[in-house]
Amino acid sequence: MKAPDVIAKLKDRTPTILGRENFHEFAILIPLVEINNETHLLFEVRSIHMRNQPGDICFPGGRLEQGDVDEKHGAIRETAEELGISEEQVESVIPLDYMVSDFGRIITPFVGTLRHPEEIVPNRDEVEEVFTVPLHYFLETKPEVYKVNFQVIPEDNFPYNLIQGGKKYEWRLRELDELFYQYQDKVIWGLTAKLLQHFVQLIYSEA
After folding, report:
1. What single string gives the DSSP state of each residue in 44-64?
2. In this predicted model, what pLDDT tens digit does every residue of 160-191 receive, in sequence order?
3. CA–CA gap between residue 207 and residue 202 (Å, rounded)
4. Pairing mode, if any, of strands 24-35 and 105-114?
5. CB 186 within 8 A of CB 131
6. Predicted pLDDT of residue 21
7. From CA 148, how far away is CA 44, in angstroms rounded?
8. List of residues 6+ apart from 39 with CB closer than 8 A
9. Out of the domains of life, which is the source (predicted)?
10. pTM higher than 0.85, yes or no?
11. Range name among 68-72, 112-116, 141-145, 173-177 with the lowest pLDDT average
12. Contact, 122 vs 129, CB < 8 A?
């Protein structure tokens, strides 16, 4: 194949994420609600019967399904299903920056408002409870940050003879910041805390 043939074959393609077909895609909503004329963020506590991360605090959302038109629709659908409200009650939905996780996930977060939060009836199969935190708390509070270090352990038959340095090869070790917000008796950490920090940074950067 000649170079012009290569260029002709690739020139009209739209770039995407390498290996995207091997990732699970999720959409998440950061819900804003008005309580006593003050803006709050709404959180869920995952049901203790859930297979993954039971009892953790999260935002509404979940894995995209085949019927979802796009990520935004997936975030609205999941929010409505988990909170027992209609999709029409989810308004002003705006995308934030998406996240590609080394653990095989692509996460697209949104922020939006919920009308009539008093009508929420959580789906008990997925949601143990819901609670809210005033937005000003996150605007005024920095998260606690702790380091998580990853160790490289090649499998037993790893071909050291094929790489420069062999068994003495200096692997580049990863370090992860794990964030924690504590509000009253609630601990918000993990992905939810990362999305919170990103959300707050965007608010300040757009001010």
Report:
1. EEE-TT-SSSTT-EE-SEEE-
2. 999 999 999 999 888 889 999 999 999 999 99
3. 9
4. parallel
5. yes
6. 87
7. 25
8. 32, 33, 134, 135
9. Bacteria
10. yes
11. 173-177
12. yes
